[in-house]
Amino acid sequence: MSKLLLIALLLTLVGCSTPIAYYNTTTPQLKLEEFYNGKLTAYGIVQSRNGKVLRRFSVDMTGTWNGNKGVLDEHFVYDDGEKQQRIWYLEKKSDGLYTGSASDVVKAADGETQGYALEWKYTLAIKVDDSLWEVDFEDWMYLIDEHRLINRAQMSKWGFNVGEVTLYIEKQQ
After folding, report:
1. Class in CATH terms, 28-171
2. What whole-number distance in Å separates Cα of residue 93 and Cα of residue 110?
């Protein structure tokens, strides 16, 4: 009986994932080299696996592109006063496919856009108390219009959900 319950649970979890191809006919099209170009501001929250808000933050970003290579310089300010910087080095590989790296990204990011959506996966080194954890991120970004984007990131460790990050990102005009 317990094997049947485990199989049913696994099938339910697998069935919950939406493939990126679902968004292939949606508009406007998300192109990282267009959206993440120039000055942007973001506001976000970090939630525990049960939905409790753990942190709030804002981010000032500057994106620059030269051909198929981009740099996204992010400056975070958390509600407790902590400040953090992450610099992403992005590359457009082919139509809709992107890679990215940063100093605290342990496993390089791979992403694909279809229509107004991007699925972006990577492993980030996060300080937890006095240790460093490697946490897997699966980001889904949704372009609202040419100036606004919503980013939802599921965080997992050893395959278990440990939390979520939600960001609202807006281009400065």
Report:
1. mainly beta
2. 10
